[in-house]
């Protein structure tokens, strides 16, 4: 329930959220605020005894670390995190969507049956040692060089800081190989050049053998050591890309079904409004996409912690639900081994925006996944095969998470933010959704959609979800996003490093 001063999300909640800064003694649901309450922060609407559960969204977000009086500001000073001990149910909340096919966009149909929303030439590195070569190859092709190839969106270098000093097997190595394969085969790439050093642990030849990749006019590889040095590698790489340009330029946009879209569902710089405006609206857009046969891919496993039980209830099968629970257990062990806590997230900015614990943040973050059944759960950067609403394991760090989603086949990214984000990605363009009016007005050059008007009643979650979904189709057809217009995406390729650096 939205009033002029607060939002109550569930009748069982013992806190409400302030829609604007409230002065001390402001009356909220017949209770006087005991102190000033910042916008987006929580107010207790009844006494909460020490050790009692604090509830928002009708769910646990923490425990009172001291007695809390009605009207008190509820935040880090009196709300404590405790690890969850969930009882998981599988498939008890299945809301099947009514199929609604027929929507189309103008995309690039590839020979393997996949569909791209952009048409880049990628220069992908196997190791940090070849990063300079890759960047200089890509930098050789500026706007004047590409003017003769209007169907090519650009030449992009995907470089990273790993690939050697790592084990040649195990989670870390396998994740990096999946990322490389995913970018090599991504439908938003019209051609790919892979550049290595030659002696690294992450051998290009191993990747080719493991994934059955074959070299040809639009897929080439090279190693600096074999070519005989950096300068010659750059020169040879430039010539290889120059030969790829006219081939990639032959690609034409043609009508494609909305079912061909895979959208990465992301959030970053979240605030208290994320789970009230932008994330539910993105969830509505995801439902609309799923109705068309498309795919939404939620990620950031640490940021569903405390809400995963809601997702297991939506699991299409017990096996899918069990895979999600397995990821949660892995992360609990991973943080414990590294002497951390799942509550290390939220960040200081999240807390300033009103989010107190990871449980509260996760309940809002999970809303990005809409309401339809969970059809698949995937490893980091694993190809997403199932249509519908899916989940991919990843850290909460946005660049690493999106890198995995794109490697998994996402050809669009939708990113909600409340504190403000300057994120963008290539080859899949990023649509950014502001959770509040103040942010949208302050960062208008960065935000594509304003979900803040949901709070004022000028829009609704349903209407905003339709607006976001329609933007999916336009951006997939070539409309430029705000992040693309500012050239973002060249430095946001960050494969997740798992395991020891040796």
Biggest sheet, open or closed, and with what strands and sense?
7 strands, parallel
Number of helices: 16
* Widest sheet: strand ordering: 19-20-18-17-21-22-23
What is the CA-CA span between the terminal residues? Answer: 54 Å
Stretches where pLDDT falls below 50 for ≥5 residues? none
C-alpha Rg (nearest Å): 24 Å
Counting helices, strands and paired strands, the structural category is alpha/beta
Q: What report would you give on this structure?
A:
The chain is of the alpha/beta class and 502 residues long. Helix content is 30%, strand content 19%. It has helices at 131-139, 143-146, 171-184, 204-211, 224-227, 230-248, 278-291, 308-312, 318-337, 348-352, 358-365, 398-407, 437-442, 453-456, 461-476, 482-485; strands at residues 6-7, 15-18, 27-28, 31-32, 42-44, 53-56, 59-64, 73-74, 79-80, 104-109, 115-116, 120-125, 154-158, 189-196, 219-223, 254-257, 262-267, 295-298, 374-378, 388-392, 412-417, 430-434, 449-450. Strands 19-20-18-17-21-22-23 form a 7-stranded parallel beta sheet, sandwiched between helices. A 4-stranded antiparallel beta sheet has the order 1-2-5-8, with no helix packed on it. Helix 1 (131-139) crosses helix 6, helix 3 packs across helix 12 (398-407) and helix 7 (278-291) packs across helix 15 (461-476). The longest helix has 20 residues, at 318-337. It is globular. The termini are far apart. The mean pLDDT is 96.
